[in-house]
Amino acid sequence: xxxxxxxxxxxxxxxxxxxxxxxxxxxxxxxxxxxxxxxxxxxxxxxxxxxxxxxxxxxxxxxxxxxxxxxxxxxxxxxxxxxxxxxxxxxxxxxxxxxxxxxxxxxxxxxxxxxxxxxxxxxxxxxxxxxxxxxxxxxxxxxxxxxxxxxxxxxxxxxxxxxxxxxxxxxxxxxxxxxxxxxxxxxxxxxxxxxxxxxxxxxxxxxxxxxxxxxxxxxxxxxxxxxxxxxxxxxxxxxxxxxxxxxxxxxxxxxxxxxxxxxxxxxxxxxxxxxxxxxxxxxxxxxxxxxxxxxxxxxxxxxxxxxxxxxxxxxxxxxxxxxxxxxxxxxxxxxxxxxxxxxxxxxxxxxxxxxxxxxxxxxxxxxxxxxxxxxxxxxxxxxxxxxxxxxxxxxxxxxxxxxxxxxxxxxxxxxxxxxxxxxxxxxxxxxxxxxxxxxxxxxxxxxxxxxxxxxxxxxxxxxxxxxxxxxxxxxxxxxxxxxxxxxxxxxxxxxxxxxxxxxxxxxxxxxxxxxxxxxxxxxxxxxxxxxxxxxxxxxxxxxxxxxxxxxxxxxxxxxxxxxxxxxxxxxxxxxxxxxxxxxxxxxxxxxxxxxxxxxxxxxxxxxxxxxxxxxxxxxxxxxxxxxxxxxxxxxxxxxxxxxxxxxxxxxxxxxxxxxxxxxxxxxxxxxxxxxxxxxxxxxxxxxxxxxxxxxxxxxxxxxxxxxxxxxxxxxxxxxxxxxxxxxxxxxxxxxxxxxxxxxxxxxxxxxxxxxxxxxxxxxxxxxxxxxxxxxxxxxxxxxxxxxxxxxxxxxxx
Length: 797
What we know:
The chain is of the alpha+beta class.
């Protein structure tokens, strides 16, 4: 049958403009711009809703869910992966508003300006607390004024799932704000423009520079053509009268974005643009030949690039990439900027990471200014550790920087090739932030726990990576996460979150079967990963992790007054306690399932409580002489030595294993113990900073005894001439310092609300004087002084 082409085209254009059809993978670059549609309320696709049962534990997140939305999911008429779209909403109010709140969600990412001021940088989370759902941001606005106001968005749609994101299949932006008795919302009265200066494969076709990129990433390289730049659309005076009106994509709560849950984590902190350390070397020079320049940052960090240049010709290509562009066989981000003729300014908004930026500059280009904007998770370093051993200080500082570069909208294993939210990495990162960052950091832990709840699969499978296209169950990582979640609760007192998590953690442990020998069957999960490296004793390690997690659930059951799992926990603990040593303990000392000792396995035997004090000496010898653990497990080996009281051995091993990283000129800690010639190891990895916890928790000795520091102890190890440490809590900062003086020590404590206990060697008892009210407490192992909130000086002479 013959179809009139003009009629067919008119029908398709009409359907497209009202959002009834969309193009998911292709777009026509020669398509004429449609006329602006007349705004019509409620002209949106018929909503479809996901079944509540699609994720078994989503109901536990009900208190975070928002059902009442006036705004709609909107977008441009074209739904293309790797696209940038600008939105602008103008409105008037009758008075100045000093503070209000806007709720926002974008399928991938957004940047928001309010009256020309950048307010949100890299907002939204790459999908939600369950497989199908979405998070929304809760953002305070403080600069609305009487008369005309403008809210503008730059939104990014990745359009692909990755190790750290889930694609909804459609792009979208949703927002709403109540102000001055009206609701400002996303609907088809919002102005929209597809920013075609951001090129993708569909727009450039064969001219697209198909640089290889890690398949684990959801984000794309940027290709920006300044010749087509829209300009500063976020400025209040910018004219958008020629822009289209937004197209309705879905009702809030409907597919494909589904239910919306408040993101407990804050939006990103971002700084003003500053120059690189050596910017002046390259500024105000006209390059007479193609030149690669190297720009230095003060440390390895998350940042975006900004420059002001003048180009003699249009169409010249500038490339931007960092010193983490290539990691072994993986390549990460290489961005392209195409010049227009004359003066131009540009900020490359998507964040990158590294300690150096490389730019390939063509001839005929003059750089007037080159700088960067640092951004990252909104928490400050308020904890500290300083000793008379400078190498320990360097290691602590590198550990906290490694933590920060691997935190953003989720925890990450690494910020370059994967950005994947592994629970194993998060387990170490959670304990690190409890000793190094301010309480604002607790919110990313809360978000991680809520996501673990929502992503739990049928059969009570606690996955080890979410959000992700490949969530996986990695049993030892899921077990380690249970322990770290408990530590988060112990340090913060977040009873609400731990109550939600309890049921999942307890039920997860019921997935293990018992063997005839009374011990657990090793659970493969979807990935039987136990550690990198050699001589991994999978049987002992998984059994010890499992028993350790049983102990944690037993504590939580008591704290939460839950008794229904008591019989299961008791029976499992008894059978493992009765048979662990029978099966795994050897006459020459330690625990193993095969012929060779494993430092990881024996460390976990200590941490779990399966090893007895009479086993400590033989385990000490194993941990001193066996060094197979990866940096992930090294934290647990060092912790086991500390718990057994072998502090000198712990520090000696720590300095030995981390020697190359301490000596390296970089500011982060590596994935593995060496940077091999092929460069297959990332130079910044989330799991490697365990020594930070060891120094603050065991060498400075600051740790809670009761939930939320209702009671806490300080047990400093007097192995250096001085230690100065602090830990930030919900109740304020605890500080402890000691300095070696003639014939003794001067100890200073700043105490928070609650009861603290200073535990000193027993031989200090008759040599100690103190200021303030401190009470001696009878103890078999230490000379103990209890104290309340205040400042204290203790002199040992």
